[in-house]
Amino acid sequence: MIETERLVLPPPDPLNLPLRALELGCTGRWELLTEPGAPESTLPHGLPPCAPDLQQEAEQLFLSSPAWLPLHGVEHAARKWQRKTDPWSLLAAQGAPVPSDLQAQRHPTTGQILGYREVLLENTNLSATTSLSLRRPPGPASQSLWGNPTQYPFWPDLSTREEAEEEIDFEKDLLPVPPGFKKGVDFAPKDHPAPAPGLLSLSRLLEPLDLGGGDEDESEAVGQPGRPRGDTGSASPCSTPLARASSLEDLVFKEASTVVSPPEPPKPPPQEQWAIPVDITSPVGDFYRLIPQPAFQWPFEPDAFQKQAILHLERHDSVFVAAHTSAGKTVVAEYAIALAQKHMTRTIYTSPIKALSNQKFRDFRNTFGDVGLLTGDVQLIRPFPPLGESFRGGTGTETGSEVLCCGTSGARRPEGESTIYTSPIKALSNQKFRDFRNTFGDVGLLTGDVQLHPEASCLVMTTEILRSMLYSGSDVIRDLEWVIFDEVHYINDAERGVVWEEVLIMLPDHVSIILLSATVPNALEFADWIGRLKRRQIFVISTAARPVPLEHYLFTGNSPKTQGELFLLLDSRGSFHTKGYYAAVEAKKERMSKHAQTFGAKQPTHQGGPAQDRGVYLSLLGSLRARAQLPVVVFTFSRGRCDEQASSLTSLDLTTSSEKSEIHLFLQRCLARLRGSDRQLPQVLHMSELLHRGLGVHHSGVLPILKEIVEMLFSRGLVKVLFATETFAMGVNMPARTVVFDSMRKHDGSTFRDLLPGEYVQMAGRAGRRGLDPTGTVILLCKARVPEMADLHRMMMGKPSQLQSQFRLTYTMILNLLRVDALRVEDMMKRSFSEFPSRKDSKIHEQTLAELTKKLEALEEPDVTSQLVDLPEYYSWGEELTETRNMIQRRIMESVNGLKSLSVGRVVVVKNQEHHNALGVILQVSSNSSSRVFTTLVLCDKPVSQEAQDRAPATPEVPHPDDLVGFKLFLPEGPCDHTVAKLQPGDVAAITTKVLRVNGEKILEDFSKRQQPKFKKDPPLAAVTTAVQELLRLAQAHPAGPPTLDPVNDLQLKDVSVVEGGLRARKLEELIRGAQCVHSPRFPAQYVKLRERMQIQKEMERLRFLLSDQSLLLLPEYHQRVEVLRTLGYVDETGTVKLAGRVACAMSSHELLLTELMFDNALSALRPEEIAALLSGLVCQSPGDPGDQLPSTLKEGVERVRAVAKRIGEVQVACGLNQTVEEFVGELNFGLAEVVYEWARGMPFSELAGLSGTPEGLVVRCIQRLGEMCRSLRGHRFFGQPLHPVNDPL
Fold first, then answer.
1. CB-hemisphere CA count at 13 Å for 992?
2. Higher pLDDT, 931 or 1275
3. Confidence band, pLDDT 50/70/90 cuts, at residue 613
4. Which residues fall within 8 angstroms of residue 65, CB to CB, at 6 or more apart?
5. Nearest CA to 943 among 904, 912, 914, 922?
6. Which PROSITE patterns match (predicted)?
7. Which one, 565, 910, 927, 1249, has least CB within 10 Å?
8. How far apart are the first and last CA of the chain?
């Protein structure tokens, strides 16, 4: 074999190769030609051309000339190709992604190709189903709007590192010992032991000198890359440069003085401040200098708090704006939307109610342009109809995640992002939709039942939809700049408040947050939680000023003669007028006395019927109309009473002929969207008649289209009197001149109670129109009697409710987090607002733990050899005995017999911060049963001067067996003194069997007298002296403590913990008496060392517990719910989500029950109308029985659904959850099953209204929610036949 010599040649130039690259079009494909030359392209020089419009090409090819399409050709109809089996195809694996690509280099002016180079591609293996990174490629265009439950959410920063693939810290994350090895490399700088003072450490003196680089220097250089040799940073004082000295002795003395210098005490950790309060008292004079070209301008001058918020928005800060209703918080939201449009980003506005979403959509649309609307069942990407035509709105569901995901459509604007405005309820979303439409135009609406313009840059939606977007990995989150949370105080809602916390936790870091809320007392605390959660400062802008001050009145009239009985209770300056209150009481009392003289004293004073209510409202509205204080909103906390009160005012007509004509034309245009029979619905006819007379009704039982008609007419000033429920006040920006409260009591779902201050302020804030009214009028009707002054004062002037966490675990949340390996449910719980008080000091706990660890390492180990071998057991026995006695004493003080024994004269042992095992005698017991206070005469020492206390040495107390077994009562060293102390139950260490005869009142009177400076030197009375001498005699006779009451025999406590605790205490006493360590002469010194070590270890265990997952309040419930999922087969033993669990993630509500019905194939044999009727029991909120008119198959289906629900409830109870089986099954309401069944069979809606007494609005609401549920089920083809789509009956 001839070996040839290889020549090393320089690499040839690309132009000298016998090849030529040819770029084919603009697709990125290249072709190699066997001709030398420069790279060329098939495109002409210049700017790259544009491809023809695919839509126009498809229309021209397929729609304009369809004749060439072989639609009727049958030659290929019945052909069949035999599939050739290829077992090896089962083993085929997808190839690795291409790591590099060719990139053309063009001339910047002409576009001519100058060359090409190979570039490496990053993150080529990321996808929506494998990565949380924002750098992953977008999902399919069909899923860009709604996302997909199988996709990963974007990284919400639930842990310390984004993904394992992102980056590795090569300084901290490298292991010093390889896996499987016993030894490794120690990269830490070597620290020499400090020499004794005055001795010369030759190695330390020579270490700074560079003597040729020995092994130690080399290892240190390796361990400290980037540093000079021998420089180990701040590892130890020995690493400092060698100081110049004239002699070796000077150097030694300097070295010795350096060694003995005490270390500096550790600095306290800096306090992190995430919530920054903003001062709004001073005007912002340089506003237009700081922002010369604002993104949006208003026809009025913004207030100071609005300018401050705008300045922070320009800096891309997150803000929390807390202000009263109608103060102008929406100005901040409008500027954020305009700023997002200027930046070509996107905004989301979330609202808690649908009406607010609709209103904001309309308002923003009129300002910002093209509007879209998205909800669960309708997607209309078209221009919004004129205001008179209205869009088909609806209440939809107000309970939770009814939409899986929403986001940008396939036709997104290039480099465009969005603003999302979220509201907690759909009524709020609808109103904000209208408002923003009028302002911006480029606005979309997403609620549970309506979708308009999903491609808009500003999206108005409910908070549940935003949560679904986050969990489903919607691509709209990529382009998101702002999320506006309106009515944040709605987070206190027990049912839906958890949605806010989930959304705030799941939002990625690049999204800024705007929080709009009514005034709340703990705004700084809430902002601090969000700031710590997102690691960014939140600027809190709070104002208590009202743009329109309010005046609050009491109205006691009930007829035209008494319509002037209006009494001022709270003026515009916030002063409470007791004179007006007593005048109202007198007016009511005088009328009652006349009533008694006429009809007899035994007649009831108030029937509360419609007739009397009619007289009250006629007199009140007549007075308000005469004083030009219309329009008025009457808040009534019952749907039925709203309808009754509006219907009773048949003789009231508040509109002019021109207003009637305008109302008539508006109604005609809006109702033209209904079918002919639906226009004759009783509710439609009745509402039309009321609106013509200037009256309106607004509650959840009204048809959605009618509610929106009422909202629009009221905003135009054509509805003079509106009877509404509390939902109308939730952020809906439709102020009136006057607000009337039908009552100050409401039913909150469980009981009747007075209105809370926050609820009253929220509704009363609708009074007063800015720029139109000098003051707003709030009137409380006194039909039966005048409420108590204390109740009125608490309701009108009390502090609003604090923002409180309503965080709870749901199966949807658990499954959505378990299916992503990088996310943990424990991290979600750690970051909840409920865990914030215990987690906000985590940094301090970590630093304290590190300091305690160093302190523990520096402590000297106690000697536990020879005679001290049982010293650790002795210490643990003493600690356990103390804890057991404290537990028994707590049980005694919580028992009835224990509190009865603490009567006047009983001798007790007192132990608290001031007294240690001192005897005392009870002088007085408070009568408050909830918090008992025992006034006790206690022995003590004579007071000593401060200098004597400072000179007294503080010797640590070492407990001996007699001290631990007994109480070792306090005995005064000098003259005995006494004091009177108010003791809590926890201050009583033991109850003795001794009872003294004392005169408690006389002793207390004498002691309080001697506390005055004038009588301070007077001797105590004989009763005091006798009691003190008796206590001192007892203490001297029983140094280890007098006999105490036995909790089992004397106090009859039969609790198992008390009995076992007493037995354990006696066993511990025997062990302590038999300890050998106490006989050693070194026992005191070694015990002090051991106690200090054990106390530090105990504190370290407490801090570790606070920092661990075990301290989470909801951790036991989480384990119980995971066990439920594991039992039902939704997750496996390792926590991996199985098929059933992934299906349950896609369900909007009742995820376990729906998934079980699907996998049991329980609905496959039923017809579509029967399936719809059964599923209505899961979404209906009207309780009731299904009735006897249902078909037999439907009755059997109802029983089967309840049987499945019962089985799930039994699994939950078996796994330890608190919800009973009856409560879980009771969540199903089949009251509208017959109505839904007939509707699905095609019965007109006008006939459906007669099948049930349920209001028409609730029927529509049930059907809309049913449609959303059917669409979520239709996505999973597990049924024998697919579910038919559910259409809106209107």
1. 27
2. 931
3. confident
4. none
5. 914
6. HELICASE_ATP_BIND_1 (PS51192), HELICASE_CTER (PS51194)
7. 927
8. 92
- CA–CA separation, 294 vs 308, rounded Å? 13
Residue-wise pLDDT tens digits, 1211-1221:
999 999 998 99
Cis before 631? omega within 30: yes
pLDDT(1094) > 50: yes
Residue 329, Cβ density class (10 Å: 0-12 exposed, 13-18 middle, ≥19 buried): buried
Within 8 A by CB and 6+ apart from 922, the residues are 902, 903, 904, 905, 906, 908, 934, 935, 936, 1000
| Measured distance CA(552)–CA(744) in Å, rounded | 13
3 state SS of 1142 = helix
Using pLDDT thresholds of 50, 70 and 90, give the confidence band for residue 764: confident
Of the candidates 1124, 1122, 1158, which has an alpha carbon nearest to the alpha carbon of residue 1140? 1158
Q: What is the C-alpha to C-alpha distance for residues 1274 and 1285, in angstroms, rounded to an integer?
A: 8
Residue 1123, burial from CB neighbour count under 10 angstroms (0-12, 13-18, 19+): middle
What is the rounded CA–CA span in Å between residue 1271 and residue 1274?
Answer: 5
Residue 894 in tokens? 């919580």
Q: How many CA atoms lie within 13 A of 683 on its CB side?
A: 26
For the beta sheet containing 40-41, the strands, ordered from the edge strand earlier in sequence to the opposite edge, are 29-33, 20-24, 40-41
Among 449, 358, 360, CA closest to 1290: 449
Distance from chain centroid for Cα 873: 47
Q: What is the mean pLDDT of residues 438-445?
A: 74
Give the integer Cα–Cα distance in Å for 940 and 96: 84
* pLDDT tens-digit readout, 70-108: 655 555 555 566 778 888 877 777 677 777 888 888 888
pLDDT value of residue 960: 84
Residues comprising the chain, all counted = 1290
The lowest-confidence range among 234-248, 396-410, 685-699, 888-902 is 396-410
